[in-house]
């Protein structure tokens, strides 16, 4: 196996797979089970003034046969006392000295932050994660995403923590913001050693059509919650890459959001992460999924002649460009493999009604035909085709002549993506 050990912002761990702060890291019993199962680190369920939770707490977006394509929760931070949490964290650290144990927390006053940081350092945690992200319950009290959405406040609280912390400080960012780079740069100005993202996205997952109430239902009422799981991965990948590509942003990134497999984790590395965290997939399938993650990532590194996960960091992010820098002269069209086609004609319907009318039906066979002269190479047919590799996109010479994107320097509404050069 490749060496998966990492040093993330000064925090060492046997591998880059950490549990995100959430129910799987509620107790010492759980975190020790997770470390035995192979997780390299754990971010403890957020410490703070203990709260009382409601029931029920979770809602899910099931998509066809995929249970929990997206998970929504209205749970708050830890409901246990600081003393109870610290005593269990101390035991975890004693039994697993080489695993990364991170204390997540959120407090209101500078004194509270200082006190908790010092008490966590006394019991030997390896680092801190400042929860500036939870989008429900705590933000109404001026914490969580209320901090992450206000760069000045995020910078100030990070600086408070850095006044006393001797261990690395990770700032966990909220995705409920227009420009993630503003939040990341604020954390950097405050002295953070790293950032992690994403926390959950504001959402209501579904409405019960019998009771006409949103879920999760608390005696018939509900509240908006935080969305996570596979459905949020594309949003998280984009935000990670926006930070990674920002010329002034220099901190390492812990990628979070919808990671279920080694491949998902590799995508986060490729988009700029140097470590990853997982929550929903563990809530769904258990700690055991880390086995596949470790062997899969190790094989992938070996196949690519790489020795460490961080060799992947940013390779795909560096291939992102501003729209107008893409080559207008590159042309592909769809090709249907008649041997693989099952004749469902979904590609025809999608192209006819939803795209560019570039696929024709044929009278002698159910295999549709691409109208090559009309095909714009949009990909839709290959995306709806239920058979892998049946519709592929092939490059053809472009006969339209050299095309370039017109400059619009005078338009005051012109968006300049500062993250991309
Ligand atoms: C039930 C639940 C509780 C959570 N509690 C916390 C928390 O206390 N602190 C925190 O920073 N994030 C919390 N999160 C957010 C996760 O740590 C993570 O950022 C988010 O779920 C995205 O990762 P995922 O798609 O792997 O679940 C919670 C998520 C869930 C589903």
Layout of strands and helices, then pairs:
Elements: E1 6-8, E2 11-13, E3 17-19, H1 28-37, E4 41-43, E5 58-63, E6 66-73, H2 82-95, E7 100-105, H3 110-122, E8 127-131, H4 145-148, H5 151-164, E9 169-172, H6 180-190, E10 194-197, E11 201-203, E12 207-208, E13 213-214, E14 225-228, H7 233-245, E15 253-256, H8 262-270, E16 275-278, H9 280-285, H10 290-303, E17 332-336, H11 346-354, E18 359-360, E19 369-370, H12 380-384, E20 391-395
Parallel strand pairs: 3-4, 3-16, 4-7, 7-8, 8-9, 9-10, 10-15, 15-16
Antiparallel strand pairs: 1-2, 5-6, 6-14, 11-14, 12-13, 17-20, 18-19
The protein binds flavin mononucleotide.
Flavin mononucleotide (FMN) is lined by residues 20-23, 45-46, 71, 73, 75, 77, 104, 131, 133-134, 172, 199-200, 228-229, 232, 256-259, 278-281.
CATH superfamily of the largest domain: Aldolase class I
**Which band does the percent of strand residues land in?**
15-25%
Tally of strands: 20
The first-level CATH class of the largest domain is given as: Alpha Beta
Largest sheet: 8 strands, parallel, barrel
Number of helices: 12
The percent of residues in helical segments reads 25-40%
Multimeric status of the protein: single chain
Low-confidence stretches: none
**Order of strands side by side in the largest beta sheet?**
3-4-7-8-9-10-15-16
Provide the gyration radius in Å: 24 Å
The rough form would be described as globular
Structural class: alpha/beta
Tell me the span between the first and last alpha carbons.
37 Å
């Amino acid at each position: 196996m490749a060496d998966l050990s990492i040093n993330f912002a000064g925090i060492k761990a046997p591998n880059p797979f950490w549990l995100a702060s959430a129910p799987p890291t509620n107790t010492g019993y759980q975190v020790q089970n997770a470390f035995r199962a192979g997780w390299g680190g754990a971010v403890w369920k957020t410490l703070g003034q203990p709260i009382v939770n409601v029931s029920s707490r979770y809602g899910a977006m099931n998509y066809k046969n995929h249970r929990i394509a997206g998970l929504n929760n209205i749970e708050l931070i830890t409901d246990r006392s600081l003393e109870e949490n610290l005593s269990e964290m101390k035991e975890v650290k004693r039994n697993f000295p080489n695993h990364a144990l991170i204390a997540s927390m959120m407090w209101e006053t500078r004194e509270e932050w200082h006190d908790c940081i010092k008490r966590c350092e006394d019991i030997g945690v390896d680092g801190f994660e400042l929860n500036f992200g939870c989008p429900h319950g705590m933000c109404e009290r001026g914490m969580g995403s209320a901090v992450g959405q206000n760069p000045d406040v995020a910078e100030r609280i990070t600086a408070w923590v850095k006044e006393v912390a001797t261990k690395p400080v990770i700032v966990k960012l909220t995705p409920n913001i227009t420009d993630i780079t503003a939040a990341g740069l604020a954390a950097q100005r405050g002295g953070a050693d790293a950032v992690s993202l994403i926390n959950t996205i504001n959402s209501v997952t579904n409405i019960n059509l019998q009771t006409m109430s949103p879920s999760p239902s608390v005696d018939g009422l509900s509240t908006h919650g935080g969305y996570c799981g596979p459905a949020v991965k594309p949003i998280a990948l984009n935000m990670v890459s926006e930070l990674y590509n920002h010329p002034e942003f220099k901190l390492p990134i812990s990628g979070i959001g919808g990671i279920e497999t080694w491949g998902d984790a590799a995508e986060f590395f490729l988009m700029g992460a140097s470590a990853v965290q997982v929550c929903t997939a563990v809530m769904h399938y258990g700690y055991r999924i880390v086995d596949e993650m470790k062997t899969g990532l190790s094989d992938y590194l070996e196949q690519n002649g790489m020795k460490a996960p961080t060799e992947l960091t940013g390779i795909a992010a560096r291939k992102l460009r501003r729209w107008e820098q893409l080559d207008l002269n590159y042309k592909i069209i769809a090709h249907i493999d008649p041997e693989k086609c099952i004749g469902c004609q979904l590609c025809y319907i999608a192209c006819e009604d939803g795209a560019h009318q570039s696929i024709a039906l044929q009278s002698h066979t159910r295999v549709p035909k691409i109208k090559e002269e009309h095909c714009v190479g949009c990909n839709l047919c290959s995306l709806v085709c239920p058979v892998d590799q049946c519709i592929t996109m092939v490059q053809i010479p472009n006969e339209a002549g050299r095309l370039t994107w017109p400059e619009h320097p005078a338009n005051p509404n012109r968006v300049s993506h500062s993250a991309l050069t």
